[in-house]
Design brief:
This protein is an alpha/beta fold. Helix content is 45%, strand content 15%. Helix 4 crosses helix 7 and helix 6 crosses helix 7.
């Protein structure tokens, strides 16, 4: 697709932020991942990109809110996806900056002038001004709409309420706010306490979390002391539990079966001198594993391969341990990846469950007797977690569950599930 034509909107204007945000939001609502949609911002100045991303993430986290208001204020659905997305972005901005309402409207109208030849400028102006006139009544109605009030799809809420009758509101709240920022200190280079001292010297406050982690306010990775030299990695505290549960031992042969982008791979290598094979089905994502290992000064064998097709990559030697960080709904990391609220469907859960079951069955024969397999997801749905492992234990009498952890998303970490299995024969 051709790049959008240059715009006369100033680089530091809210209008440009709304325009760029509208394009990315429309792409996500059309089925594109946010990671891919954000590549359209790569040529923008850092300050412009950051401002646009703030609007994009805020709008997507408020799933259902803008759509509810648009449905109430439009006589019929808009035929132009980017203009509709612009309205959603403007609704978010009016919510987050009610003191600047008329400036937001003015800038949204200017942004509309850069879309579809400007034919929707009047409509955008009218809809937003109507919202301001009816704000109290519309916001009250929004609070009584389940999807908009909870900012999650209805099918998602139904599953959460069934699985967590008392805990679902906290899970929903975590999915509606920005996630915590956590670092994993490379124990080959420093200790948690020593690196926290380095952060303080750089004017950055932090506090310990888990065995190797530090929590701190959001900061660019490039601004972290020693980041380029491999002293530390950005990794959620919940994700750090994978290496800690698998507990690699020196000399072991380990398979990381779905390894990209390589955070858990690197953590295993930091923890012990092991012979590690990292696989990922996506060649581009496999290169990210290599980039991460290079920065950290670590070595592993990295291959782009489907772990289910062992005849294409396995040398026949069984592994001491396998990390199966399987594809899943990612419902536990939705605060970090808000596009998931738009991209997932109820039918996806069964599709993921079938894939997870297949992966477990294909990987299990590659494990030596006495070996360990750690099953991991970033999902909060039981069908992908405990129910998956219960079914596997029925299929595999030689499997024993050594440990199980359910981490629900909170202020310290995202949502994860882990089950550590041992092969008895």
């Amino acid at each position: 697709m051709a790049a959008p034509a240059p715009t006369p909107l100033p680089a530091d204007s809210l209008g440009l932020s709304l325009l760029l945000a509208a394009r990315s939001i429309a792409a996500v609502r059309g089925g594109q991942s946010l990671t891919r949609a954000l590549t359209a911002l790569s040529g923008e100045a850092a300050v412009t990109r950051a401002a646009a991303q703030d609007v994009i993430y805020g709008t997507l986290r408020r799933y259902g809110c803008g759509e509810f208001l648009a449905a109430r204020l439009l006589a019929r659905p808009l035929s132009h996806a980017e203009t509709e997305a612009l309205l959603l972005a403007a609704f978010f901005r009016l919510h987050s900056r009610p003191d600047a309402a008329y400036m937001v409207v003015d800038q949204a109208v200017r942004a509309a002038g850069e879309l579809a030849g400007g034919v929707f400028k009047g409509l955008v102006n009218g809809v937003l001004r109507n919202y301001l006139r009816q704000r109290a009544a519309l916001d009250a109605a929004l609070a009584n709409d389940d999807e908009a009030a909870q900012q999650h799809p209805g099918w998602w809420l139904t599953r959460l309420r069934r699985a967590y009758p008392d805990g679902w509101p906290a899970i929903v709240a975590a999915g509606n706010r920005p996630p915590p920022m956590a670092l994993r200190v490379n124990c080959r280079r420093s200790t948690v306490a020593d690196y926290a001292t380095r952060l303080r010297a750089a004017g950055l406050a932090s506090r310990p979390v888990g065995e190797n982690g530090l929590l701190l306010p959001p900061v660019a990775a490039a601004d972290l002391p020693g980041f380029g030299d491999g002293w530390v990695s950005v990794q959620d505290a919940g994700a750090q539990r994978a290496a800690q549960l698998l507990a690699p031992l020196a000399g072991e042969r380990i398979l990381d079966a779905c390894a990209a982008p390589g955070g858990k791979t690197a953590h295993l290598l930091e923890a012990a001198d092991v012979d590690l094979l990292a696989l990922d089905i996506d060649a581009t994502r496999s290169r990210r594993i290599e980039d991460n290992l290079r920065r950290l000064g670590l070595t592993a064998t990295v291959k782009a391969a489907d772990c289910r097709q062992a005849d294409q990559w396995w040398d026949g030697r069984p592994f001491d341990a396998i990390l199966a960080d399987v594809p899943c709904s990612a419902s536990g990391v939705v605060g970090r990846h808000p596009d998931i609220k738009y991209l997932r469907r109820a039918s996806d859960i069964r599709r993921f469950a079938l894939l997870q079951s297949e992966l477990l069955d294909r990987l299990w024969p590659l494990l030596k007797p006495g070996g360990r397999l750690l099953y991991a997801t970033c999902s909060v749905f039981p069908e992908e977690n405990g129910a998956q492992i219960d079914a596997f234990l029925v299929r595999q009498p030689a499997a024993r569950r050594l440990a199980e952890e359910r981490l629900l998303p909170c202020d310290e970490h995202d949502g994860f599930y882990y089950a550590l299995l041992r092969k008895t024969a």
